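Run log // design_07
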């Protein structure tokens, strides 16, 4: 019984994130377009917690960090994106963009 309950809880968490993901992503995009760098950073970071290898989010977060003057963090996220895309190409996978 415990295993099935745990599995149901995991499915509920995934479904909750899936429904919230679009909302968070849209808010992040609007913040980016409005040059609200702090808000965009917060929202893209929230997405990255759930999707640590998402190349689009890594690139957007890197761009936000550049705008905030945090070049070390910018480099870190763009480097992670580059490694992710290289790995996908080696394995014949889509980049997710």
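design_07 sequence
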């Amino acid at each position: 019984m415990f295993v099935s309950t745990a599995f149901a809880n995991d499915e509920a968490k995934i479904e909750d994130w899936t429904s919230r993901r679009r909302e968070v992503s849209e808010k992040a995009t609007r913040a980016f377009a409005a040059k609200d760098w702090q808000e965009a950073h917060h929202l893209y970071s929230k997405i990255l917690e759930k999707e640590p290898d998402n190349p689009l989010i890594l690139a957007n977060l890197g761009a936000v960090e550049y705008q905030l003057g945090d070049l070390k963090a910018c480099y870190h996220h763009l480097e992670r994106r580059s490694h992710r895309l290289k790995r996908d190409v080696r394995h014949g996978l889509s980049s997710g963009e």
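Residues 65 and 73 are 6 Å apart (CA to CA).
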